[in-house]
């Protein structure tokens, strides 16, 4: 079977098997679009059904999570863990607590995680999990009871050499702490089964900053490749969570000026540059909405709803959620002079938006490459847990920077090798895929 035929057939089969999973279909289509030349060069991958196997999770787990609220009412949510591919190491990927969570979203995230983890160069496979539980508006006790119930079931399927979850949207240090305590109680083991832990019980320095810092390191490499830098550049960031906050911090350190951030209700525009101390106070300490920002900085403007991508900028860093940049947003960014886009969230640009960026020669860092910093430092946390050792912040940050530079260089190398210069989407997809495919080839049909 010819390479193009093979890829098309596998995608058709995927659509039939997963008819209502739009996010998973989108993630697969984006990867598949890069792989035809790989199968032309490696027909043995077709014979061994590598693509057929890589798009089907090794295991999909769905379970109920009963818990009681502060009024004594019984609530029930759904929990998920999709263990996608363990060819290069134990499953590794975050847990997302958000009302939008369903099997399609967890599968898209897990599928992306395979290649993201591969790109780090570290021995970790791909997985993802979460629940449709919404932590917003819940008390600490309610969140604790939910996390304990969630982990009671999840603990059956995870372990430091099997599957090591981390945080994601809605899952920060508080949630990780509650889940780790429950795992330890059930299993009687003090092991590195979760990452993103607190520093007092096995967490890693620089883990909090890792995804945001890593994103900026990757975009900085893209800029350097064209003789550019962040110095003096105007930057628009979406989101106001962990990734956005530390992306803003690193951009400021490199001489850029971030003029926006957003949450699910609206966005802030601050021509003087987003004040990090205020943002951290609102989001990390008080856990309040962005509307509070203008109380401290009345010269800034808060706008309800979407529209952050209408702000003119040199560099755009989407750090909120999937599909937040559509085709029209991309056209607006291009019209306003954007030169680089780095994806801090998972799949924040639609396929049509990506085409707009690439067709207009915008430097584009895809999520599986640009936001791999978080999982990279999670893997470093696993290493420290195994050694019963802690590296300094500077040591971890230096390792992170090297990892992001290597991801960029490998993406460039693969893009050039397959005739797609400056297309980091193709380069990252191929670089991530090849390592996993080779591991699957030598391990047999399992």
UniProtKB/TrEMBL annotation:
Annotated site (Important for catalysis): 168
Gene Ontology biological-process entries: glutamate biosynthetic process
CDD domains reported for this sequence: NAD_bind_2_Glu_DH
Name of the protein this chain belongs to: Glutamate dehydrogenase
Record key words, sorted: NAD, Nucleotide-binding, Oxidoreductase
Entry keyword Oxidoreductase: yes
Family: Belongs to the Glu/Leu/Phe/Val dehydrogenases family.
Active site: 128 (proton donor)
Source domain of life: Bacteria
Species, as recorded: Clostridium bovifaecis
Sequence positions that bind NAD(+): 211, 242
A GO term for molecular function: nucleotide binding
Pfam families attached to this UniProt entry: ELFV_dehydrog, ELFV_dehydrog_N
UniProt: substrate binding residues: 92, 113, 116, 167, 378
Domain Glutamate/phenylalanine/leucine/valine/L-tryptophan dehydrogenase C-terminal residues, every copy: 204-444
Gene Ontology cellular component annotations, sorted alphabetically: cytosol
Subunit note: Homohexamer.
Lineage: Bacteria, Bacillati, Bacillota, Clostridia, Eubacteriales
Xref: PANTHER family: NADP-SPECIFIC GLUTAMATE DEHYDROGENASE 1-RELATED
């Amino acid at each position: 079977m010819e390479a193009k035929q093979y890829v098309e057939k596998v995608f058709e089969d995927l659509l039939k098997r997963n008819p209502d999973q739009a996010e998973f279909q989108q993630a697969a289509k984006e990867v598949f679009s890069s792989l035809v030349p790989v199968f032309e060069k490696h027909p043995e991958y077709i014979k061994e059904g590598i693509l057929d196997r890589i798009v089907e999770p090794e295991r999909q787990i769905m379970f109920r999570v009963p818990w009681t609220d502060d009024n004594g009412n019984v609530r029930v949510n759904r929990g998920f863990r999709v263990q996608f591919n363990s060819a290069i190491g134990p499953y590794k990927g975050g847990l997302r607590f958000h009302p939008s969570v369903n099997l399609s979203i967890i599968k898209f995230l897990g599928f992306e995680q395979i290649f993201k983890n591969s790109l780090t160069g570290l021995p970790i496979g791909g997985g993802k999990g979460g629940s449709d539980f919404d932590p917003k508006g819940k008390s600490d006790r309610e969140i604790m009871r939910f996390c304990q119930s969630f982990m009671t079931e999840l603990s059956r399927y995870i372990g430091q050499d099997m599957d090591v979850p981390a945080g994601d949207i809605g899952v920060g240090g508080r949630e990780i702490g509650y889940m780790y305590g429950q795992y330890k109680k059930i299993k009687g083991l003090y092991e590195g089964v979760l990452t993103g832990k607190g520093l007092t019980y096995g967490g890693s320095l620089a883990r909090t900053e890792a995804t945001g810092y890593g994103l900026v390191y990757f975009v900085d490499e893209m800029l350097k490749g064209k003789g550019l830098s962040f110095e003096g550049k105007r930057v628009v960031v979406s989101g106001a969570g962990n990734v956005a906050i530390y992306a803003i911090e690193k951009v400021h350190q490199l001489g850029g000026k971030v003029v926006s951030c957003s949450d699910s209700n609206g966005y802030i525009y601050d021509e003087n540059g987003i004040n990090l101390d205020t943002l951290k106070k609102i989001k990390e300490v008080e856990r309040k909405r962005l509307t509070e920002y203008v109380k401290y900085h009345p010269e800034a403007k808060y706008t309800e709803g979407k529209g952050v991508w209408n702000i003119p900028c040199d560099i755009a860093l989407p750090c909120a959620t999937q599909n937040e940049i559509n085709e029209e947003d991309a056209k607006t960014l291009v019209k306003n002079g954007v030169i680089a886009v780095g994806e801090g969230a998972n799949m924040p640009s639609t396929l049509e938006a990506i085409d707009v960026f690439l067709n207009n020669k915008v430097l584009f860092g895809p999520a599986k490459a640009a936001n791999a910093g978080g999982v990279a430092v999670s893997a470093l946390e696993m290493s420290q847990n195994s050694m019963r050792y802690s590296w300094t912040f500077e040591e971890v940050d230096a390792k992170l920077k090297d990892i992001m530079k290597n991801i960029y260089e490998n993406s460039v190398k693969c893009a050039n090798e397959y005739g797609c210069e400056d297309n980091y989407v193709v380069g990252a997809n191929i670089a991530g895929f090849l390592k996993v495919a080779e591991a699957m080839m030598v391990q047999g049909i399992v």
